[in-house]
Amino acid sequence: MTDAVLVVFARQFGGVPLAVASAAGRVNLIGEHTDYNGGEVLPIGIGRRTYVAVRPRPAGEQRSRVMSADIASVGEFDVGAPQRVGAWWDYVAGVASQLRAARVELPQVDVAVWSNVPCGVGLSSSAALCVATTAALLAAAGHDWSARDIALVAHRAEVDFVGVPVGIMDQFASALSRDGMALHVWCDTTATEYAPFADGVLVIDTAVERSLRGSAYHERRAECQAALTLLRQTHPGLRTLAEAAPDQVVAASLPEPLCRRALHVAQETQRVGAAVAALRRGGCIDGELFTASHASLRDLYECSTPELDWVVDRAVAHRGVRGARMTGAGWGGCAIAVGDAGALADVAPELAADYEAAFGRAPRVWVSRAEGGVRVDLGG
To answer: What is the pTM of this model?
Structure first.
């Protein structure tokens, strides 16, 4: 895959880059819509990655150039004063902006991007782009930062520069994931730990594209904040919505839909704890946790779709599938099924064919395992 981005770079800019870095896409095993509510999450890196190749431009050049293997046009921005223009390369410019704010000296650069992380389906393609860009620019500038610091820069780029108010999970998963491990993140403190995860994960992209900007994501965030404000009237010590226990939410008699939103967050955070405990005992995540999580996202948080519900229902009916649920923010995107990797590979073709027959769209389906996060593939 590193060779692919080298070819893309040579065709567009000639020669070879000074640095190449890559970062993983991710699926969240359990813990959905808890990250921006200060809760816990349990993602893994997957075997789909975004590669970013960087080379400084000659002295005197006034603009940086950015291109992607998937897009014919070349974007431009000024490293010295990046401006948001509403294009995909805002993510690259945003990283440059945040690195400059951290007093990293950057020249104008040529940047090429190659990725097999599908966009707009809930696998954190934007986080992978920001994390890989951060690592590549730092490597080209002669810096060696920790994966955590890279993730924090990438998060600020997406939130503060691009303007998408995501939690920290995506960037942390893209940067900090490890082979054979699930990443347990406390999103209120950014503390992390790892739990062994040996299962295979079948990723089913329903081919229903979604966007956090165009979905009800912002509405849900506002509802969660409103629920927290009301809960603090009787529980003033609550720092985050995820700190509220389910019985506290029920006793508060919040108006709908705030009660349902808050109850999902409270119960989902508890499900993450149960999943981590099971993995640490050397076991597997109970399928009932996946079932309960999806039902909560469907009924309480109302972010599922008929396609996601169909995939989850069909997947769990197959032998070898321990559990299934939607993953990512929802309103389209992907579902996952968890179990033995060989069994999942056998399930995949039939599930894909049945889905296409039911909805008239061919899904992208593949089996992954827990894989590593950010790395510098060339230079540094």
So the answer is: 0.95
